[in-house]
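Running co-folding for fructose -6-phosphate.
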Amino acid sequence: EKGGYDYFMLKEIAEQPQAVADTLRGRLTDSGDLTLDEVRLTDQDLRDIDKIFVIACGTSYHAALVAKYAIEHWTRISVEVELASEFRYRDPVLDRSTLVIVISQSGETMDTLMALRHAKEQKARVLAISNTNGSTIPRESDAVLYTHAGPEVAVASTKAFLTQVVAVYLVGLLLAQVRGIKYADEVAAVVQQLQKMPEKISAVLATMEPVRELARDLASAQQVLFLGRHVGYPVALEGALKLKELAYMHAEGFAAGELKHGPISLIEAGTPVVITVPSPRGRAILHDKIVSNIQEVRARGARTIVIAEEGDEAVAPYADHMIRVPHTPTLLAPLVTTVPLQVLACEIAAARGHDVDQPRNLAKSVTVE
Ligand code: F6R
């Protein structure tokens, strides 16, 4: 049941702090050690890995993109991310020392299943991240890490996505821990930060009223563009996908630095552009670059909707609308910055009179190739 919400999607958005807490529970000890019991790979297997592929479709693919930033940074293992539907139609280079991580909420997505089988034929080890116990993808994988989001009913993925992002962090931290790494202190700090994320997501959810108002205002826009850098880039892609699938509106996500290489010509007077800003306490260059990107689009007439940390005053002069999120280390930011984009898409779709839970032409689980 919808538990008092108008849509399952709104209920599932609201369940995200719990979903994230449930996915972390029992997997992080107080001393910062990680335990992933369901990962049936030995420490030696994990030490032998010299390359990682992360493969998925749709929203799960956006979690895979986040995985690249986190896992490469923490482990120094090279990570390639690929859409499942593309992976097996080329000739990917993989062998016994390759780890293939497949991410699928349903565990039944045919494109992802076929990619998994292709990886196994090449003798790669396969780790599934899935929300569905006993589904086909986890069954056929060498190891499984379940997300504990609970059943997701709305076609558009929300809480499953956030828990997939948590799961890829856990895999990255586990690999870092087993292999011994350069960033040991940082990894311990990340473990602590992860435990605070449910609270931060709740704080974001508590401040969504202005986003709902903004959504009603944007319902008549022709298009909405989303920009981000680093892990903000997959967040931009996710914001755009949600808006396309629910509101049937033209929406595109871009790596902010790519805008000047073409897409900036899409911007007209009043075009809404949503920008997620990385923490000003992280790498200064990353933050500075996004501030210039906001100025660039604003100079072309864009209406800027800026998602930035509390206390980040550098962006304020260029924001037509400001959405504040609590301080979060750069790599973990998608767990908070995605939430307002989900709410925005849901409310714009509702304002346009669409069935948010059952968008046209879409199925919850895509079991055809
Ligand atoms: C979008 C959405 C889809 C799924 C995709 C993969 O909101 O839900 O893009 O993410 O079809 O599904 P799973 O994760 O079940 O393999």
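Result summary
The CA atoms of residues 69 and 230 lie 7 Å apart.
The mean pLDDT is 93.
Job closed.
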